[in-house]
Amino acid sequence: MHTPADKLHQACHQLKAVAEDIAENPPPRIDFRERLRIERPLFMVIKEACHQYLGYELHGLSEVHRTELNHWMENNGCGKPFQNLARKAFELRVFLLALSSESAYVQGDALSRASLTKKTVLRDLSRALISLAEKAIRIKGEQIKD
């Protein structure tokens, strides 16, 4: 039987592995399958962190789930470090949605006008995912509740 800490470490390890793979072998595009490949471990990290640190069962990464989690954190005096972790996870999910949308393919030249390349954007995404995974493990020593 895995403890919550083991599950969190495993989820963080999976997220880091996906993020490193994206940085080393950028996919030609972020389609639905690629987005889900990234989103699954992202969800597992924040879900296991919520379970381990707050005793809260997160059921998804949609706007409804974000609102419910924020409401729960406000009512239960959750500290800033965890609020920032949760906010970042939901922001990354929104970024993935935008990156994988059909309009993102059409707006490819908008990246070049902003002096960005797809490789740069994916490298930055990879860094953000790795940072989130590391923060989820480190947060244990920080103030979870006010």
Sum up the structure in keywords.
about 150 residues, mainly alpha, about 0% strand, globular
Structure description:
It is a single chain. With 146 residues, the protein is mostly helical. The protein has one domain. It has 7 helices and no strands. It has helices at 4-24, 32-54, 63-75, 80-100, 102-106, 108-113, 118-138. Helix 2 (32-54) runs antiparallel to helix 4. The two termini are 31 Å apart. The model has no long low-confidence stretch (mean pLDDT 84).
Which geometry do the CA atoms define?
Answer: globular
Radius of gyration: 16 Å
| Main pleated-sheet profile | none
What percentage of the residues does DSSP assign to strands (E)? Answer: under 5%
Number of helices: 7
H and E order: HHHHHHH
Tally of domains = 1
First-residue to last-residue Cα separation? 31 Å
Strand-helix topology:
Elements: H1 4-24, H2 32-54, H3 63-75, H4 80-100, H5 102-106, H6 108-113, H7 118-138
Brief synopsis:
The chain is mostly helical and 146 residues long.
